Automatic annotation (TrEMBL):
Residues 130-228 bind DNA. This is Response regulator transcription factor. The keyword DNA-binding applies. Keywords: Cytoplasm, DNA-binding, Phosphoprotein, Transcription, Transcription regulation, Two-component regulatory system.
């Protein structure tokens, strides 16, 4: 059974969300403070974490930062409506997606399913038939979900991995933001949504720590292109 951890100090909201998601067959655990939430996230076997930004003891952003040292469980951030800076920082720290409060339960359900689908696809692609990608000093192995740049390991979230894989499979070709949003994030591209930009920025930073040349080119307003060789 798919296990989901909700870390939010709004007990009433947690209960409502838990009841709603339980109808889809998910196993739900709830924690209402940051310190206990971090411990539970690190020791529990969860397929997804719903993480509020405003938490007592340890706020959600610092909790995510600590978690990402050694844990890449998918995280859906819950942010206050209008707090764009929290969303940007959350994505920079490795959140897979965000949702602004108050939210429609159906939108939450859709985001949860989209994230879990990305993880499932990543595991499905681990079959022996999935080809190894070696392009421009970057190696991506769908069989074990490992990425290397110049033979050094690169740790990516599930979202970052699927995004990089799609760009590498179309190396030398422009992939539109709309296509990436539909195929990777599981939703239509929304105006002012910077999720894709932040995920690509994270990939660039991680690859850039090992190679100084640019791997992913941005065509402003159009999409992204994984370079098949140095420019």
């Amino acid at each position: 059974m798919t296990a989901i951890l909700i870390i939010d100090d709004d007990i009433e909201l947690c209960t409502l969300v838990a009841d709603y998601l339980a109808m889809d067959g998910y196993q739900i655990d709830m924690i209402h403070d940051g310190i206990s939430g971090l411990s539970k996230a690190q020791t529990g076997n969860y397929q997804l974490i719903l993480l509020d930004v405003m938490l007592p003891g340890l706020d959600g952003l610092n909790l995510l930062k600590a978690l990402r040292h050694d844990n890449y469980c998918p995280v859906l951030m819950l942010t206050a409506r209008g707090e764009d800076i929290d969303r940007i920082i959350g994505l920079e720290l490795g959140a897979d997606d965000y949702l602004a409060k108050p939210f429609n339960p159906r939108e939450l359900q859709a985001r949860v399913k989209a994230i879990l689908r990305r993880v499932e696809l990543a595991h499905h692609d681990s079959s022996q038939t999935a080809p190894l990608l070696e392009i421009n000093q970057v190696t991506l192995n769908p069989r074990n979900r490992q990425v290397q740049c110049k033979q050094q390991d690169v740790s990516l979230t599930a979202t970052e991995f699927q995004l990089l894989e799609m760009l590498m499979r179309h190396a030398g070709q422009l992939v539109s933001k709309e296509t990436l949003s539909q195929q990777v994030l599981g939703r239509r591209l929304q105006q002012y949504d910077r999720s894709l930009d932040m995920h690509v920025s994270n990939i660039r930073k991680k690859l850039g720590q090992l190679a100084s040349d640019e791997k992913i080119q941005t065509l402003r307003g159009s999409g992204y292109l994984f370079l098949s060789g140095p420019v």
